[in-house]
Amino acid sequence: MTKFLHSMIRVTDPDATVAFFALIGVNEVRRFSSEQGRFTLIFLAAPGEEGLAEVELTHNWDPQDYDGGRNFGHLAYRVEDVYATCAALQAAGHIIHRPPRDGHMAFVKSPDGISVELLQDGHLPPQEPWASMENVGSW
Q1: Checking DSSP bridges between strand 54-60 and strand 3-10, what pairing results, if any?
Q2: Is 68 inside a domain boundary?
Q3: For the chain, N or C: smaller number of CB within 10 Å?
Q4: Is residue 137 assigned to a domain?
Q5: How confident is the model at residue 74 (pLDDT cuts 50, 70, 90)?
Q6: What domain range is 97 assigned to?
């Protein structure tokens, strides 16, 4: 069973963005920061939509320009089997841009170049050919 998880946008001022969304009734539901990755993830949802349809705000701590639509990041879906889903996409001629080497996450692009994150609920044991694959393209 596939489940829509979230859309992600990159933000330069997380406090201003959280305040903006609060004005339209979309509030922060959780936050995660990574010192090593130098980013903060903030998840927002409308009341009653927590865990159902969220917006992920990604704040990269190092200043970056987000031109050419780079402020929109990706769509995310939970899939029943990330390996089987990637195999089906690959068999249909799509490139797996970030293979599911960890048995948990992969990235593919739609025919129009929209990045789509596929997330396994938990982690599957490493499985070939995915475990030894490098990133195939930019994601």
Answers
A1: parallel
A2: no
A3: N
A4: no
A5: confident
A6: 73-132
Q: Which residue has the tokens 């305040």?
A: 19
Greatest Cα pair distance, the chain, in angstroms, is 48
What's the CA gap between 69 and 136, in Å, rounded?
Answer: 22
CATH code of the domain containing 59:
3.10.180.10
Residues 12 and 32 in one domain: yes
Q: What is the pLDDT of residues 42-56, one digit of tens each?
A: 999 989 989 888 999
- pTM listed for this prediction: 0.70
Instruction: Give catalytic residue positions.
Output: 117
In a domain, 138, yes or no: no
d(C-alpha 50, C-alpha 30), whole Å? 10
The answer to the question of residue 109 being in a domain is: yes
Cβ neighbours, 10 Å, residue 33: 12
Confidence category of residue 129, pLDDT binned at 50, 70, 90? confident
Q: Are strands 72-79 and 3-10 parallel, antiparallel or unpaired?
A: antiparallel
The tokens of 101 are what? 């080497």
